[in-house]
Design brief:
This protein has about 600 residues and is of the alpha+beta class. The protein has five domains: about 100 residues, Beta-Lactamase (2-Layer Sandwich), CATH 3.30.450.20; about 140 residues, 2-Layer Sandwich (Beta-Lactamase); about 110 residues, PAS domain (Beta-Lactamase), CATH 3.30.450; about 80 residues, Helix Hairpins (Orthogonal Bundle), CATH 1.10.287.130; about 150 residues, Histidine kinase-like ATPase, C-terminal domain (Heat Shock Protein 90, 2-Layer Sandwich), CATH 3.30.565.10. It has a five-stranded antiparallel β-sheet with strand order 2-1-5-4-3. α11 packs antiparallel against α12, α13 packs across α14 and α14 runs antiparallel to α16. The radius of gyration is 40 Å and the shape is extended. Its EC number is 2.7.13.3.
Length: about 600
């Protein structure tokens, strides 16, 4: 039972100094939950002294000694600073020199309470310090509360002196406005408030008159029952800026809900009755004004997994097992797509025997946050991959450049001492081959620099695609590996495009050179086909083929299919940039062990 119960359990043996004080303790046993809560692996602390594994063990000694000395159960809340966690800890001594700790993680509860306290203090602070007078009347028009600014504005010493005044009997409010308020209309009006005409309504320390802008709003619950009148008064006597502040306050909760996307709801978990701000309805995908019993416990717009989580939470709340929930929920919108809403729910008053489980809920849309997080993760992964590839590229460059340079220098020296004509011809061939390789390396690097700088230039003209393919095959035939046949596809139709001939040649040549590297026998075919107003030019080989996973990144920069093959890993990336800049598409079809087909498209004609 101890091993698997959902509460941390640790058993310790105490050791004493010469004066009989606890100086150290030894971990005898613990359960799985203790290791999870304390974030330790396996039984890493069992069989060890606290002085060896806990740098702050001295701070724990006084509490342990109190348990041993008093032989009573100690119940404390403990803050583990190094892990920033709060625990509820129960300590007792089952036998001599042994102490048992049972603890549960209360971090979320402490955090939720702190957040709730901050919110309540903030709202009360706003209510008391906002520079407008606020009066709250009950549904019958009797004054039940007012803020400090209202006391100051009307020269009052104590709010108790005016509580109970009926707004419908206040003769200083224009009669027309009072009649409209009785009809539960929201009204806004300006008036001159003359203190000389109070006529015993209340006692004020002020004299003279106030120029007021007043707004009266009716407040309703979720069942559309009138619960309060809210009267807001702005003193425009001193400064016109105050008028702008009352307009700001009038829309305060709307701005909080709509602009900050923060919603608030208050309801009874048993009856499901309550009320919510418009923004709360929006954040859970419901129509504004929908009765809460049709939402609470239904949650029809929640993702099925999140709906199950919410229903389980409400069931646990009613059973008294849980008091709070903080989770990110997926909400289905009208068009079928999902957005993210962060939901914070807290039990404020638990009295099920009286039919009351009061709960408050704060929610806000975090879709943009989730999207930003996803983009940041993707960008981070991409940056790390790019950095890794660039590092590999730079490490490879020294080898790729040094290899042809060594060959050129070495065989140039040998050429000076060669006697036989065949030997000289062989050395010259090696030097020429490495010259071409070095030039290609430098050309790829220069092209990459131009692409990065946005200066990759194109010279457009009419290009005969058939002739271009034949020219490429002819020019590269001398480099064909033994056992491989390089040919052009038969019966090619006439085809003209308007493009940069040299850039197209560069793409096709790169395809063919890549085929040389990975085709030891068989055939390499250059060809094209016409369809839907464009030409698809391709190079097909019977080589080793490409793994499906590598096909997805083959056109990325610094990617090489084979680390042992010569090249920078830039050629296909440059080809992709060329094709995209002439308005085409590029791709590869390949099957491992059977060969590959590299292709790109280009619009026909001019």
């Amino acid at each position: 039972m101890f091993k698997h119960m959902p509460v941390g359990y640790v058993r310790m043996k105490l050791f004493y100094d010469e004066e009989g004080h606890v100086k150290d303790y030894y971990f005898m046993d613990s359960n799985t939950m203790a290791r999870i809560l304390y974030n330790t692996r396996g039984n890493s602390w069992i069989g060890k002294y606290a002085s060896k594994v806990d740098p702050n063990f001295v701070e724990r000694l006084p509490d342990l000694e109190r348990v041993i000395r008093s032989e009573v159960v100690r119940d404390i809340n403990y803050h583990l600073e190094e892990k920033n966690k709060y625990f509820h800890v129960v300590m007792y001594s089952p036998c001599k020199d042994e102490v048992v700790l049972m603890f549960s993680d209360m971090t979320d509860t402490f955090s939720a309470h702190e957040a709730l306290d901050r919110s309540e203090r903030l709202l009360r602070n706003i209510y008391q310090n906002i520079p407008v007078g606020i009066e709250l009347y009950d549904k019958d028009g009797y004054l039940v509360d007012l803020n400090d600014k209202d006391l100051e504005m009307f020269g009052l010493v104590r709010k108790e002196d005016v509580l109970g005044i009926n707004m419908f009997e206040n003769h200083l409010i224009p009669e027309e406005m009072r009649e409209r308020m009785k009809r539960r209309e929201d009204v806004s009006f300006s008036m001159v408030y003359d203190f000389s005409k109070l006529n015993g309504l209340y006692v004020s320390e002020k004299t003279g008159r106030l120029n007021l802008l007043t707004k009266v709003t009716t407040l309703y619950d979720a069942q559309n029952n009138l619960i309060n009148y809210l009267l807001i008064s702005l003193d425009r006597t001193e400064a016109t800026e105050a008028y702008n502040q009352i307009q700001e306050f009038k829309d305060f909760f709307t701005l909080v809900g709509d602009y900050a996307q923060v919603g608030y709801a208050h309801f009874n978990a048993l009856t499901r009755n309550g009320y919510g701000l418009d923004s709360w309805y929006k954040n859970v995908g419901e129509e504004i004004g929908t009765p809460l019993p049709q939402i609470i416990g239904v949650h029809s717009h929640f993702h099925p997994e999140d709906r199950a989580l919410m229903l389980a939470f409400l069931s646990d709340v009613i059973a008294g097992k849980r008091t709070h929930l903080r989770n990110d929920m997926r909400i289905r919108r009208a068009d079928g797509h999902y957005t993210w809403t962060r939901v914070n729910v807290l039990v404020r008053d638990y009295r099920p025997q009286e039919g009351m489980i009061e709960m408050i809920c704060i929610n806000y849309d975090i879709t943009e946050l989730k999207e930003t997080e996803a983009k940041l993760i993707k960008a981070k992964d991409k940056a790390e991959e790019s950095d890794r590839l660039k590092s590999a590229f730079l490490a490879n460059m020294s080898h790729e450049i040094r290899t042809p340079l060594n060959a050129i220098v070495g065989f140039s020296n040998l050429l000076a001492y060669a006697q036989e004509e065949s030997e000289r011809a062989q050395y010259i061939g090696i030097v020429e081959e490495n010259n071409e390789l070095l030039l290609q390396l430098i050309s790829d690097i220069l092209d990459l620099s131009k692409i990065e700088a946005g200066t990759f230039e194109f010279v457009y003209d009419r290009v005969d695609v058939c002739q271009l393919c034949e020219d490429v095959v002819t020019s590269l035939r001398v480099k064909v590996p033994a056992g491989v046949d390089l040919c052009i596809a038969p019966n090619l139709p006439e085809c003209w495009v308007y493009s940069d001939k040299n850039r197209l040649r560069q793409v096709i040549s790169n395809f063919v050179n890549n085929a040389f590297k990975f085709t030891s026998s068989g055939k390499i075919t250059v060809g094209y086909m016409l369809r839907d107003g464009e030409v698809e030019i391709s190079v097909t080989d019977t080589g080793v083929g490409i793994e499906e996973e590598k096909q997805k990144q083959i056109f990325d920069r610094f990617v090489k299919l084979n680390s042992f093959a010569h090249g920078t890993g830039l050629g296909l990336s440059i080809c992709k940039s060329i094709v995209e800049q002439v308005g085409g598409r590029i791709g590869v079809n390949s099957e491992l062990g059977k060969g590959s087909r590299f292709w790109f498209t280009h619009l026909l004609g001019r």
